[in-house]
Structure to design on (559 residues):
């Protein structure tokens, strides 16, 4: 049975809203957590301003354990914890939790990589002017790495759109859920096509915003 | 002002120990421009970083205005660093900030109110001649302009000391001269003590009052620039001086000169006011000996003349002998043997 498009559009609109909500919320929480972990990873690195072997190796190990797990498996594996924290494993917010955890570790690496590319001489200059480690983090590291960081976050956002579709298959709602139930399980090609087009458009918009912002910051 | 006593710094790289600085004792007086010269790896960069505690010594003590830095807490060290400006070979400007933003940065760290920061930044921009570049970003500037921003930034908190880490090594000769003039102005106008490290002898020659030569982590020679230039002791010092001062033509040219009948070659070195007296000409006329200047130069060093000439004498042997003994009273003279 094919869907009746006259009544199905509101469904599509709602699902798009859910997808956008999932992505944006994950991006916000994931960035906060990810930037924190990434900074910690960078400053505790050998020879850096708050060198700490234990913290660095622990974080590094944790990231390396979590990142290779395919998201769909991570999602299911994390569900007991999701139930404890969010109260349920079904729905948009239940999807945001595992997405945030997965995203933050990815973002942590992006942040770390961007910070490593900062010229150490600039950090030395700030030190020589009497900046404290915390001042170096907020007035040197973050502003100096911001341009490439935004590009990195854009890259992450696009994989989040991908994550959100996967979350949809296990009851997370959003376009992924619609595509799976109507497009795949009911063989309705038109639903599949519409969701794919919307996803493509979302990715384009995200990329455009990221490029514009980073270009403004990097002045090129 | 700055006093190193028996300072050593050893780095441990894996299992290897590197003694970057060994037993250095130096005193830098207030208001001086003190240059440390050495080839790369001589330990001068480490020595410089000990002054503002970007490195801490493994041994010995460093005193700034009588205060021993080893007793300083992390917080006191950060306060100390505000009294010591630093400039770098690669400028190390913040790419995310404008020229004005770079200069304002140390003032913000020091907690200066916004309105005062603006006044101070304008003052500094004017001093380094970059008022029209205030809102440019570092990548829009030339090397010399970048270093001028670096200098303005280092001077922002009105430091007592300015330390320069190879500040002109990334610049072309014209720009080097321009930055050196600016450093001299910093020293003269504000009385700021400057400690610089370099591998270029012309930097020492142009602006320094005193020089220390470093090799393998040790200071091998130190003194005022004029004495060191005119009478170097250590072979490394001589090598550095030869880099800016050709005191002998190539052996093949000298050989040619001898083949074509040249003889009685002497080196005449004169210093200071002696350049005002027409000494050579006087003794020449008096004794009827011709003097031929074969090679050499007269240079300015710390606002004094320094001449180093190769001359040959033509005339009767006894007359030449008299000329030499008369010259010896005023200048240093020695025979040069040509192969």
């Amino acid at each position: 049975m094919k869907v009746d498009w006259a009544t199905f559009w509101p469904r599509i609109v709602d699902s798009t809203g859910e997808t956008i909500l999932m992505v944006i919320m994950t991006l916000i929480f994931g960035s906060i957590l990810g930037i924190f972990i990434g900074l910690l990873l960078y400053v505790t690195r050998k020879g850096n301003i708050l060198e700490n072997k234990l913290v660095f190796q622990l974080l590094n190990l944790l990231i390396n354990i979590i990142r290779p797990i395919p998201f769909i498996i991570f999602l299911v594996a994390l569900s007991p914890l999701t139930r404890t924290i969010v109260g349920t494993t079904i729905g948009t917010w239940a999807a945001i939790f595992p997405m945030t955890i997965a995203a933050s570790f990815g973002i942590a690496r992006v942040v770390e990589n961007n910070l490593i590319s900062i010229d150490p001489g600039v950090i030395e200059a700030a030190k020589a002017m009497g900046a404290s480690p915390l001042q170096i983090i907020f007035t040197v590291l973050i502003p100096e790495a911001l341009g490439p960081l935004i590009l990195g976050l854009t890259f992450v956002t696009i994989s989040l759109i991908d994550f959100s579709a996967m979350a949809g298959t296990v009851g997370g709602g959003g376009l992924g859920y619609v595509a799976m139930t109507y497009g795949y399980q009911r063989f309705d090609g038109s639903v599949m096509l519409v969701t794919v087009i919307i996803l493509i458009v979302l990715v384009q918009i995200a990329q455009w915003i990221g490029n514009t912002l980073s270009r403004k910051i990097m002045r090129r | 002002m700055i006093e190193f006593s028996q300072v050593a710094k050893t780095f441990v790289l894996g299992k290897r120990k590197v003694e970057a600085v060994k037993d250095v004792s130096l005193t830098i007086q207030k208001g001086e421009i003190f240059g440390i010269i050495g080839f790369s790896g001589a330990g001068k960069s480490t020595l410089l970083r000990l002054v503002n505690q970007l490195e801490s010594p493994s041994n010995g003590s460093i005193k700034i205005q009588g205060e021993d830095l080893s007793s300083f807490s992390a917080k006191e060290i950060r306060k100390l660093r505000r009294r010591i400006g630093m400039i770098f070979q690669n400028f190390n400007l913040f790419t995310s900030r404008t020229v004005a933003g770079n200069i304002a940065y140390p003032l913000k760290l020091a907690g200066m109110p916004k309105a005062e920061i603006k006044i101070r930044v304008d003052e500094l921009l004017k001093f380094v001649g970059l008022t029209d570049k205030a809102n440019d970003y570092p990548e829009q500037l030339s090397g010399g302009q970048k270093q001028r921003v670096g200098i303005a930034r280092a001077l922002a908190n009105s430091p007592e000391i300015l330390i320069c880490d190879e500040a002109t090594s990334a610049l072309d000769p014209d720009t080097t001269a321009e930055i050196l003039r600016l450093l001299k102005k910093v020293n003269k106008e504000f009385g700021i003590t400057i400690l610089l490290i370099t591998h270029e002898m012309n930097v020492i020659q142009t602006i320094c009052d005193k020089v220390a030569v470093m090799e393998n982590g040790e200071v091998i020679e130190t003194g005022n620039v004029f004495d060191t230039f005119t009478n170097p002791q250590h072979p490394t010092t001589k090598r550095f001086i030869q880099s800016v001062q050709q005191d002998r033509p190539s052996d093949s040219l000298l050989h040619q000169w001898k083949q074509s009948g040249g003889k009685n070659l002497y080196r005449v070195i004169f210093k200071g006011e002696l350049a005002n007296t027409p000494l050579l000409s006087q003794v020449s006329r008096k004794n009827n000996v011709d003097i031929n200047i074969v090679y050499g130069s007269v240079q300015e060093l710390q606002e004094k003349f320094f001449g180093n000439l190769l001359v040959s004498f033509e005339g009767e042997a006894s007359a030449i002998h008299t000329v030499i003994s008369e010259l010896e009273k005023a200048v240093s003279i020695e025979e040069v043997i040509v192969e």
Notes: The mean pLDDT of chain A is 89. The interface with chain B takes residues 119, 121-122, 124-132, 135, 139-140, 143-144, 146-147, 217, 219 of chain A (CB under 8 Å). DSSP finds nine helices and no strands in chain A. Residues 5-218 of chain A form a domain with the MetI-like fold fold (CATH 1.10.3720.10).
